[in-house]
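A reminder from the course coordinator: this example appears on the midterm review sheet, so study it carefully.

Given structure:
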């Protein structure tokens, strides 16, 4: 069996060697074949040079270098695409994920799961970061019905088949569990250690909250309406048009039965606006439905996932 360890790095020069030594100790203990894939996400310090030094000593170390900083999602996507292991493990390069948890992850995934997620039950992060993560987790539970306690934990292990079903873009690394759940993969979690950051600075910022929320809305839409967007846009269009027609009928009754003037009433404009908006949403629904069909045809991708086939 072969393991692929994917490590996105961005200005982590002081953590490169200690993390490698810790990983090497665990991997030697397990005696599996392995590869460690460092994805340099446009670092501006000496991180890449340290990785190159490791590469000279260990040919199992592989390097992917981005031309500039594209973000953690892109780094994980690139690393997983080029990984060749039977099981693929991702973790942060800041030494807050403990490589000693890897054997437990492997033991758990062998029970028949496609993805095992780490649960940082005792997080060693600043208060604001933990508070914002708690708010994000609450939103995920409400909107996505997420049952995993800590989907934002980078420490995860996948089967090769699960990685094939994973398409990462934007800031979607936060929603790996939801994306694979959408495909029907078996997911579980185990408690893992979380260590305090000793070197470097966190890459977390308040901007990620906004980006994460927008990605959450996109994911919710894709989960519910990726095959028939007409159900979403058409439903809203019919609702708005119906309200507009009801208001229009009310105004007609007011005019012809009670002899009231309606030409200067804002309600008339609102009624017409709702009817027009309803028809526009219906048109958007038809166009979105056509684009979704084109998407699946061009990608040669099906909107379903097959676990196995017997003929």
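Designed residues:
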């Amino acid at each position: 069996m072969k393991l692929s360890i994917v490590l996105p790095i961005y200005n982590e020069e002081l953590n490169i060697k200690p993390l490698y030594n810790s990983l090497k100790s665990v991997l030697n203990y397990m005696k599996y074949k392995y590869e460690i894939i460092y994805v340099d996400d446009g670092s501006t310090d000496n991180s890449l040079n340290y990785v190159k030094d490791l590469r000279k000593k260990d040919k199992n170390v592989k390097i992917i270098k981005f031309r500039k900083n594209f973000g953690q999602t892109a780094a994980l996507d690139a690393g997983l695409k080029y990984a060749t292991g039977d099981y693929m493990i991702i973790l942060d390069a800041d030494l807050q994920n403990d490589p000693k948890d890897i054997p437990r992850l492997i033991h758990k995934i062998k029970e028949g799961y496609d993805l095992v997620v780490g649960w940082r039950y005792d997080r060693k992060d600043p208060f604001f970061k933990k508070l914002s993560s708690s708010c994000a987790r609450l939103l995920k539970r409400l909107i996505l019905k997420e049952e995993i306690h800590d989907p934002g934990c980078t420490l995860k292990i996948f089967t090769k088949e699960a990685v094939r079903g994973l398409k990462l873009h934007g800031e979607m690394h936060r929603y790996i569990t939801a994306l694979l759940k959408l495909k029907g993969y078996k997911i579980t979690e185990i408690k893992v250690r979380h260590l305090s950051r000793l070197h470097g600075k966190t890459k977390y910022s308040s901007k990620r909250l906004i980006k994460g929320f927008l990605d959450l809305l996109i994911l919710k839409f894709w989960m519910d309406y990726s095959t028939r967007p007409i159900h979403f846009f058409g439903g809203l269009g019919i609702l708005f048009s119906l309200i507009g027609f009801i208001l229009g009928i009310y105004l007609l009754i007011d005019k012809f039965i009670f002899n009231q003037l309606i030409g200067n009433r804002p309600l008339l404009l609102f009624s017409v606006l709702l009817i027009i908006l309803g028809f526009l949403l219906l048109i958007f629904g038809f166009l979105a439905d056509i684009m979704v069909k084109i998407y699946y045809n061009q990608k040669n991708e099906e909107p379903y996932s097959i676990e196995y086939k017997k003929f």
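The two ends are 29 Å apart (CA to CA). The chain has a mean pLDDT of 89.
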